[in-house]
Amino acid sequence: MSHRPHLLEDEFPEHAALIAELKQSDTHFAHLAERFEALNREIHALEVSPDPELEPKAEELRRKRVALKDEIYAYLKKKAAGAAAG
Q: Which InterPro entries match (predicted)?
């Protein structure tokens, strides 16, 4: 268990500069990043104060985070490819 929430820059270090740029310039990406960060905060809160009754909720949130992370990665790849081609 981590002592801090995951950051997008930690998840995709090879895209850290692109992440920073897109958070400022791309409203769709900024929304995705905000959703990811909100999920992380909620998951982190459940992990630092474990309650067996809340574990199903934590697992559901982790699944949502994985799906969102996949969506973000696909978006980053698309933007990186566009930048490389442009």
A: DUF465, DUF465_sf
